[in-house]
Amino acid sequence: MLTESGGTAQDLAVELAGLRGLDWASVWEGPPQGGSSECVRWCARNGWEPQTADRNLVVHSGAGGRWTLEANGNWHPVESLTHWAWHLDATEPADNPEVLAHAARMWPEFLTAAEGVLGPAAWSGPWDAQDFPEPPAPGFWPSRDYRLKTRTPYRMAFWEPTGDHPGEPWFVLVQSVSFAAWTSDAPGGSRLRLSVNAPEGTGGQL
Q1: Which domain of life is it from (predicted)?
Q2: Going by C-beta distance under 8 Å and a sequence separation of 6 or more, which residues neighbour residue 180?
Q3: pLDDT tens-digit map of 135-161
Q4: pLDDT above 70 covers what percent of the chain?
Q5: Which of 5, 32, 132, 161 supports an S-S bond with 168, CB 3.0-4.6 Å?
Q6: What is the DSSP letter of 183?
Q7: pTM for this predicted structure
Q8: Count of CB atoms situated within 10 Å of the CB of 125
Q9: pLDDT reported for residue 206
Q10: Tens-digit pLDDT profile for residues 91-106
Q11: Are the C-beta atoms of 27 and 167 separated by less than 8 Å?
């Protein structure tokens, strides 16, 4: 048996559409002090409702999605926004082949939904693609050695910054599959995550 949770491909499209028109330069600078009225107003300008008051800010979007503003626990500057879009878990090891099959079916649905908002991806493909690109900056996605050793990300697509507004981000959609999914010893699973990365030179480590 498989347990599916999180959102649908259409939910992802709605979350992406909600990011249009953000003042990205302000987002990468980071929010005001957690718990302050200034922080609440800053979040409201972006259509967010704050959920935490220290370390990395977690917000809920107007569409209900959960986003983490990743700042290495330092609150600011913000390096990326992450949103876990979809989860799949097997209850028994015998379900693992279906985990792989269902993950393969879901990937094009989410990719198509993202492209409907962002336009065609600059690149998309599986972990073992011969033309799998190197990350444009540290932390955007794993190195070649790590990817080939762990099959992570299992599938990926990315979109380069567009337009001439300061701070325009890189969008990265990744699908992961747990190592257990290739075994008969433990139940496996799969995840889909969207990362919105600060352009090189903007965030803390970029």
Answers
A1: Bacteria
A2: 93, 96, 186, 187, 188, 189
A3: 998 889 999 999 999 999 999 999 999
A4: 97
A5: 161
A6: S
A7: 0.94
A8: 14
A9: 30
A10: 999 999 999 999 999 9
A11: yes
What is the distance between the terminal CA atoms of the chain, rounded to a whole angstrom? 42
The residue assigned the tokens 């390096």 is: 79
Question: Quick one: which H or E segment has residue 107?
Answer: helix 96-118
Q: What is the CA radius of gyration of the chain?
A: 17
Whole-number Å distance between alpha carbons of 164 and 73: 30
What pLDDT score does 138 carry? Answer: 85
Residue found under tokens 């913000």: 78
pLDDT at 203 over 80: no
Cβ atoms of 79 and 196 within 8 Å: the answer is no
Whole-number Cα distances in Å, 1 to 67, 103, 157, 163, 187: 29, 14, 29, 45, 10
